[in-house]
Each structure stands twice: as structure tokens, then as C-alpha cells.
Specification:
single chain, alpha+beta, two-stranded antiparallel sheet, 20 helices, about 50% helix, binds cytidine-5'-triphosphate
Length: about 375
């Protein structure tokens, strides 16, 4: 179970982690609160992240009073992103939200109190506010601290997943990230969630946020367990292999883990299986098989067993010639298909270790170009 930072240490922890909030406190007085994930993470003693400040009043006015650089503003939601001491800070007018139909974007109205703003939020652990004027006081009307301490994820309202089904995917992200359990009522509501009332784009964006987490595999498992994601065949084997491959050379940094996890959960396409089952005998053959596949497809095929793809990704993919088309033109080859034929032949020979240097490459290329 997580142990939370003691109440008497909150103010100094806040000043230490987020010194840029001092100027907001000075400009906003009693009306400004730290809210959302930053409060949760501060209580858990986790690293600083993005910060959201709720303004009971007008966020745009506060931004103007701060004289800070504004990098984005959304009038519809009353939000302004500013840069303070080199850090981005989201200022948002405290608001209420109502949903015209399941999955619709909310209709927002200014909230008269911080409590009203907290009441529109997703989980109790995300519905805690710290008044910047006195961060020692915690505004926690939904028992977020107790749930954090108990390691529990709890929705605020029974209609929450109906109003905004992206929250079901968020639930998997938080439960996996923190290793928290769902309270039974919340889990029951999750299992009844209909993800089809939101657009494919919103669903995809939220899934990618889940996929980007170090605990993506656990989060996707949870979603599948709640019946909200149909995992494809080979999921378990893929998950085990990818957990290692994604952190290792030559794959780390060359693929987008979020894309990879989502594709793995859905199950690889037929052409990935084709690649996984291929047994090239020469590097040139391997390169021509792999070349037209995306990095995501390549790592999935590797995870399904095509170990030769390590060499492709780490070496063969980046193998290039010392000569180029100009060298062939200078040797009398006319521009046209013969050039491509010559260069391809030279690259194949180089990949297969049949050339040693520029002269060899040129000889192979010229022979192939003149063959046509
Ligand atoms: N929120 C919500 N419902 C959503 C999205 C967001 O209630 N569908 C609220 C939550 O209070 C959340 C806050 O808006 O804490 C900020 O959302 P977001 O930036 O997505 O998440 P963080 O809390 O910052 O968490 P993290 O970045 O760690 O995922």
C-alpha cells in the first residue's frame, strides 16, 4: 500500500517540486488550486509532471495578470497554457460539465467553487485540490487520499463511464501504473461500458496513452479482462517477448512502444505472420523481405520468432553503398532502369559480404547495369 506524504509536509513539498507556482499563488490569491495528477503524484511522493491549476474565476485573466508567455488557449474550455520559469502550466477556469448524450464532448459552464469542479472529474485520486494560498489544507471531498492510501481506483459517479467512456481506458492506465485495485462497484460499471459511443480517434488516442506507459501490457490485460478489448491470437507470447525487446538494442528507440503495444494487443496481420515464418538464407534476401515493413510490423514479427530481424534492424537496414548513381553515369550507364538495377545488385552483393570497398561495388553495379 502506498504511504502518503504527511499533511504538514505538503506545503514545503509543493514549493520544492513546483517553485513556479509561487507567482501563481501571489497573483491568484484564494482562487487558485493545484488539481489533478500533480496533486496525486505529490501525495504519492512521485516525480514532478505536468501541472494543472484550477482558477475559481477566469483563467485568461489570471494568465494576463501573470504576464507569462501563453502557448495555447481554448476558449470553449476556459483553459490557457502558459510558460512559467521554463515550465508549462495549464490554467483552467473551474468548471462544471454536462453531457448531452453518452460519449459527447461535455458542455461546460464556470463552477462557483472548487468542489463543483472536482465533482466533474474521473476518479477520486484525481479529484483532490490543494489551495495554493495554503497548500497545507487539502480539498478532498471524495475521499481521494484514503483511496490512494488503500491503493484503490474509484469512480466518482455511476454515470461517469457512460458520459465519457475514455475513462474506462484511463482506468486501465491508472490501475496498471499504480498497481491499484478497482473497487467492485467501479469494476462492475467498467464491464458495462460501451466504448463505441466515442469516436475511433478519441478511443485510439486514449489507447495510445495507455500503450505509452511502462505498464502497458498489464493495462491492456485489464481492458481485455473487463471485456473492453479483444486481444488477438498470440497476445501472451507477444507480450512476454515485447517486454524484453522494446528495452533492448536494436529495437529500443527505433519503434514507438505505444503503437507496438496496441498492434500487439489487436493481433498481427497476415503479412506479419508471413515475415515471422520466413527463413531467409542470405542477408540480401532478408533485407528485401523486411524493407517494406514498418518498424511496428518488424518488431511484431521478431517477437513471433524471426530472430534474423535483429540483424536486419541493427545492421542490414542501414547498410549503404559507397557509390551512387552518378558514379554509374560517369562510367557511361544511361539514366533509367539500368542505374537502379546496377545499384540494387551492388547493395545485395555488399549485404552478402561479396564486396570489399568502392571498386568492388562499382564492378558489380556496372556488370548488372550492362546485363539488361
Ligand atoms: N480528467 C477527467 N476525465 C477525463 C480526463 C481528465 O476527469 N476524461 C481530469 C482528472 O481530474 C485528471 C485531470 O483531468 O486528473 C487531468 O487529466 P490528464 O492530464 O489526462 O491526466 P493527469 O491527471 O495529469 O494524469 P497523468 O498525466 O498522470 O496521466
Amino acid at each position: 500500500m502506498p504511504s502518503l506524504i504527511p499533511q504538514e509536509n505538503l506545503a514545503s513539498a509543493l514549493r520544492g517540486a513546483y517553485p513556479e507556482l509561487g507567482s501563481i499563488a501571489a497573483a491568484g490569491g484564494e482562487c487558485v488550486y493545484l488539481v489533478g495528477g500533480a496533486v496525486r503524484d505529490l501525495l504519492l511522493g512521485r516525480e514532478r509532471g505536468d501541472i494543472d491549476v484550477a482558477v475559481v474565476g477566469d483563467a485568461a485573466e489570471l494568465a494576463a495578470a501573470l504576464g507569462a508567455e501563453t502557448v495555447a488557449a481554448h476558449e470553449r474550455f476556459g483553459t490557457v497554457k502558459v510558460v512559467l520559469d521554463g515550465h508549462e502550466v495549464d490554467l483552467a477556469t473551474a468548471r462544471t460539465e454536462t453531457y448531452e448524450r453518452p460519449g459527447a464532448l461535455p458542455t461546460v459552464a464556470p463552477a462557483g467553487s472548487i468542489e463543483a469542479d472536482l465533482a466533474r472529474r474521473d476518479f477520486t485520486l484525481n479529484a483532490i485540490a490543494l489551495p495554493l494560498a495554503d497548500p497545507g489544507i487539502v480539498v478532498d471531498p471524495h475521499g481521494g487520499r484514503a483511496d490512494l492510501e488503500a491503493g484503490l481506483l474509484r469512480i466518482l459517479r455511476p454515470t461517469s463511464f457512460i458520459d465519457d467512456p475514455t475513462r474506462a481506458i484511463r482506468a486501465a492506465r491508472y490501475a496498471a501504473r499504480f498497481g491499484f485495485a478497482l473497487v467492485p462497484e467501479t469494476e462492475e460499471l467498467l464491464r458495462a461500458t460501451d466504448l463505441t459511443t466515442i469516436s475511433a480517434e478519441r478511443r485510439e488516442a486514449e489507447l495510445l496513452r495507455l500503450g505509452a506507459e511502462p505498464s502497458a501490457a498489464e493495462g491492456l490485460e485489464l481492458l481485455a479482462g473487463w471485456g473492453l478489448l479483444q486481444t488477438g491470437e498470440h497476445w501472451e507470447a507477444l507480450a512476454a517477448a515485447l517486454s524484453e525487446l522494446l528495452d533492448e538494442s536494436p529495437w529500443a528507440g527505433e519503434v514507438d512502444p505505444a503503437q507496438v503495444w496496441i498492434a500487439a494487443a489487436r493481433g498481427p496481420h497476415g503479412d506479419v505472420h508471413g515475415l515471422a515464418n520466413a527463413h531467409p538464407t542470405q542477408p540480401s534476401q532478408a533485407a528485401s523481405l523486411a524493407r517494406h515493413h514498418s518498424p511496428t510490423e518488424l518488431i511484431l514479427a521478431r517477437a513471433l520468432g524471426a530472430e534474423w530481424l535483429d540483424d536486419y534492424m541493427g545492421v542490414w537496414r542501414d547498410t549503404s553503398l559507397e557509390i551512387d548513381g552518378d558514379d554509374l553515369v560517369a562510367a557511361g550507364i544511361p539514366t533509367g532502369p539500368a542505374l537502379g538495377r546496377g545499384l540494387d545488385a551492388a547493395l545485395r552483393a555488399k549485404l552478402d559480404g561479396e564486396t570489399a570497398g568502392r571498386d568492388d561495388e562499382l564492378a558489380v553495379a556496372l556488370a548488372a547495369a550492362r546485363e539488361g
